[in-house]
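Re: [ENG-882] Designed sequences occasionally contain unexpected residues at chain ends

Forwarding the minimal case from QA. Structure tokens:
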């Protein structure tokens, strides 16, 4: 108690010293806020704790034996974000696929509807056939009603309504939060249920590419393994985020926690409850944000914004509408598109079957294309390894600093491509060359140069040999994991 008194007295002394330096006429002072409001979150915590739960996920006994070999030795699902993988591995020794009762791990959750709807992370319940939900008062409720959305890392667990009503927290408006606002994180880090930490909103709109759809709130409230799925609260005690990940070199708290905004979580929750899944629209393009002035100039843009199309999926809505690689989408139904993530969110939020108008810049000229949206398919894959490549042909483009080879099944496997793709493989990039500065690396596949397809080294040589060595060059490339990028390779001075 003395420490608090000293701290408060110190603040008062500093204020008094300031007034003696520049004397002023006495002024009526307003009543100070109650000390408890300044120093304690006790009322918020008392309201929140009954609605925050610990979640133990497990497989049914008959499934454990069949899955033990598949998941044994911490052989977790491919593509799992590193932060999530590390946390699950840390929690596995207490359970894991080899545990007799099939425990997979644990996390946190929050009751958001009194009828028994618990909101949590997908990675907390991934692979589970049932979960045990533990309340602060010691109650345990087992549920097999689990639905999730991997693309946002969100899930809901439905509890037996007859055992309710349950204490629930209101979901707030995450868009209203600003950097510097105070927040409170509640959960079960390292299995320590009912742990409360506090901090501020450090940043908004963070995108770390751990989920397909993300718009993280960053906070310095301490978040550790086991906090996943628990709520991030504002000072009114409303849920404004679902704690999801940490950015850390050690796997423990280092001042950067990430939470899924409540507005996104609410939308996903409502769809999971109504439909058992989330329906999203898509147009079927690989794209990237236009963030480089040089790239904007090459694409004929008046300002640096929009999403440039790198590739068009065959048979997808974009192809049917006439979209082409190199097109820049700058608006949807008259609303400006800032970048590729904004475009992705705008399209995904629309109902499948709806027709939208895309504002497109092609070769510096504006046009409008009508696209009938379709439901987004689920298609993911990993590439394998293979043999050594051969047939290297140095690039004849002076100053570009590239060596390339014809694509073949052997070369594709060597560099990790799932199937043969049209283009040439980069086998060497000179250090400090314009190509290196543009981000081109060995193992990337170049498919177009200056919007012209280069399906083999002969076509590549023909295109680049006719270019002005002093001019910037637009190069479209891709990586084995499916990422597409459009870069500008600077010309020689």
């Amino acid at each position: 108690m003395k420490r608090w008194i000293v701290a408060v007295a110190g603040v008062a002394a500093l204020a008094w010293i300031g007034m003696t330096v520049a004397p002023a006429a006495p002024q009526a002072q307003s009543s100070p806020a109650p000390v408890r409001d300044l120093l304690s979150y006790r009322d918020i915590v008392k309201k929140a704790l009954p609605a925050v739960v610990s979640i133990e996920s497990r497989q049914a006994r008959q499934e454990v034996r069949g899955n033990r070999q598949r998941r044994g030795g911490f052989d977790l699902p491919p593509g799992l974000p590193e932060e999530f993988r590390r946390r699950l591995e840390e929690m596995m020794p207490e359970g894991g696929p080899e545990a007799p009762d099939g425990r997979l791990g644990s996390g946190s959750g929050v009751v958001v509807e009194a009828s028994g709807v618990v909101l949590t992370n997908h990675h907390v319940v991934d692979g589970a056939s049932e979960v045990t939900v533990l309340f602060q008062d010691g109650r345990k409720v087992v549920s097999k009603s689990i639905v999730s959305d991997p693309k946002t890392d969100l899930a809901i667990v439905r509890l037996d309504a007859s055992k309710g009503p349950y204490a629930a927290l209101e979901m707030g408006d995450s868009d209203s939060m600003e950097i510097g606002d105070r927040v409170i994180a509640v959960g079960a880090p390292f299995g320590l249920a009912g742990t409360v930490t506090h901090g501020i909103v450090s940043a908004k709109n963070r995108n770390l590419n751990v989920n397909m759809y993300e718009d993280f709130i960053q906070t310095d409230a301490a978040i550790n393994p086991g906090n996943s799925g628990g709520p991030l609260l504002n000072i009114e005690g409303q849920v404004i985020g679902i704690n999801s990940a940490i950015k850390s070199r050690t796997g423990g708290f280092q001042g950067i926690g990430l939470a899924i905004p409540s507005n996104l979580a609410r939308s996903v929750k409502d769809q999971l409850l109504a439909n058992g899944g989330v329906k999203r629209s898509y147009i079927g393009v690989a794209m990237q944000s236009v963030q480089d002035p040089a790239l904007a100039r090459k694409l004929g843009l008046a300002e640096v914004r929009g999403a440039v199309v790198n590739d068009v999926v065959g048979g997808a809505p974009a192809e049917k509408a006439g979209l082409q690689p190199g097109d820049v989408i700058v608006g949807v139904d008259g609303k400006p598109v800032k970048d590729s993530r904004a475009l992705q969110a705008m399209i995904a939020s629309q109902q499948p079957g709806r027709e939208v108008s895309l504002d497109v810049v092609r070769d510096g000229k504006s046009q409008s294309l009508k696209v009938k949206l379709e439901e987004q398919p689920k298609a993911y894959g990993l590439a394998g390894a293979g043999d050594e490549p051969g047939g290297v042909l140095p690039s004849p483009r002076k100053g570009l600093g590239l060596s390339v080879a014809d694509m073949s099944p052997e070369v594709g496997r060597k560099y990790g491509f799932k199937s043969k793709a049209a283009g040439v493989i980069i086998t060497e990039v000179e250090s400090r060359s314009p190509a290196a500065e543009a981000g081109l690396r060995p193992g990337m596949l170049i498919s177009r140069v200056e919007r012209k397809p280069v399906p083999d080294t002969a076509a590549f040589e023909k295109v680049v040999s006719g270019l002005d060595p002093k001019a910037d060059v637009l190069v479209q490339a891709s990586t084995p994991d499916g990422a597409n990028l459009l870069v500008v390779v600077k010309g020689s001075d």
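QA comment: On inspection the terminal residues look reasonable. Residues 209 and 284 are 19 Å apart (CA to CA). Proposing we downgrade this to a documentation issue.
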